[in-house]
Amino acid sequence: MGEKKDFYNRNTDVIKGLLIIAVIALHFPFKIISEKAVIFPYFLEFAVPGFMFISGYVRTLSYEKKGASSIGDAYDRDKILRSLIRLVVPFTLFFVFAQIFMRIIGLYTVGIVEYGLLALFFDYLRGFIGQGSYYFPLMLQFVFVFPLVWYRVRTKGFKGVIEVFFINLLYEVLKTAYGMSDFEYRFILLRYLFIIACGSFAALYEKKTCKINNILMTASLTIG
Hints:
mainly alpha, 13 helices, 224 residues, disordered C terminus, globular, single chain
């Protein structure tokens, strides 16, 4: 286990700000030739994987601050509920506002009754519409999946990261073998499992294994 340390890293706020800028830039209508330029994959396309790395890092620091040491601690009902509230409440407010606004401006020409409550519910679960719509469902999955990742990394160290890598790899192999569509693929958190584990490892062993952390972060963001 790493040394005792402060549980707040101000650098994560700076990194998150840069990632937000990258996400905004990523959704500009780039031409195909621009997407092949050096700046695109290394300075823009890493944005969402970067957020996943930071999410694993920050959530691990939160667990350490609260003295979590077991899988039961990570799956504490109050902790899970608070995490869900932080996600669901703001997104629900946005979803309701967006539904009203889009009908006012005419993007939706049918009412909720005609559109169907079931269709509306699936819109909600998919994160509504748009290129970044998968982020909300990914983070919902993160709330329930991350404790398992954190526990393996905390108890097994680097071996835990390798375990998670092979789970991630197996998912990629199965996804390709069974012809999963890109639309379905982007909604499943398993594609970011290794990156999340690297973020957790960086938080737990930051001072003792900084060289390994640098290698893991570079590898995970490149793969992502």
